């Protein structure tokens, strides 16, 4: 483990620095658009534009990275994010900020590609699971810490945006000082989405719904909490708790999914989240401690849907198609991320802050009912034929699919 950390120190330090700034910026935008007079729908639109930029970048940037090299490419994408962070200070206009979210998402996808391929170059079949786990913990930990930075100043002041820009620019330093050679990309088989859905309908739909839910958690939960008349510092703590729950509960739920049938586990997780989120109106007035506990559990349930759904789909895939399958599932997840904030904003326009939780409940219940229906249509895969659940970061790119320990580099 110590040797892995020593080898991966430069890209991981860049990742942590970057993620703290972008996490700060995401929450800042969500709660600041309201101060500019924007509606819940515009908050959702800003989040959708962010994920649209990430989705476009994740599947279009690789040729550029290969052509100019990883260090130069990272500097370009860091400059994009730094510039977009600072541009928020020049014109405080909701629609201008929404367009900047597209630019930020695109740049962030490029930075993830560089970092993930860096990790991939240092991985082997023997240490790939450890490297993936370290990557996930570093990213989610940094995103959780980034929530506390929102308290450096008022949301519409210059300080939080400048801090996000500073962190983005500082992340260039460890990457620029390393002597590591540039990674090499491999070619893999290609599977279209129609074929992927035939392979595992529950896995594909599970990834789509997890995108709908997680994009709402990142993009609109701060706005929903603000409508409960909570202070900004409380919102930052609650957001950090939600992300921490996602990090802490993935492994226990993943272990349970390995012990039981993954499709059954996916259904149970979905219904559990639907019940907890749906009954929020009974629990919301139980005190701030209860709200911390609720969001910790909702974060844990929401974040674990993707790895369980992905692992279930991969159980039905051939080894040679593994990278293509996980890349296709990530694309499906991205589509869910684009749609989710828009639907969430509509729920919030109807029900206020509670609408966020009702949306999560409806989405999770829909997934649970679909998986229940599929369970009656086809028999489950025998336990001995199932892979272990691999906890993966959902804010990622197709390059990280090669880090999946189930993928062999022959």
Can you describe this structure in just a few lines?
The protein is an all-alpha fold and 410 residues long.
Write structural notes for this entry.
- It is a single chain.
- By secondary structure, the chain is mainly α.
- It folds into two domains: 176 residues, Up-down Bundle (Growth Hormone, Chain: A); 210 residues, MFS general substrate transporter like domains (Growth Hormone, Chain: A), CATH 1.20.1250.20.
- The chain has 18 helices and no strands.
- The protein is globular, with a radius of gyration of 20 Å.
- The mean pLDDT is 80.
β content, as a range?
under 5%
- CATH topology-level name of the largest domain: Growth Hormone, Chain: A
Q: What gyration radius follows from the Cα positions, in whole Å?
A: 20 Å
N- and C-termini, Cα separation: 24 Å
Helix share of residues? over 70%
Please give the CATH architecture of the largest domain. Up-down Bundle
Total count of domains? 2
Structural class computed from helices and strand pairing = mainly alpha
The geometry reads as globular
Number of strands: 0
Which stretches are low in confidence, meaning pLDDT under 50 for 5 or more residues running? none
List keywords for this structure.
18 helices, 410 residues, Growth Hormone, Chain: A, mainly alpha, single chain, 75% helix
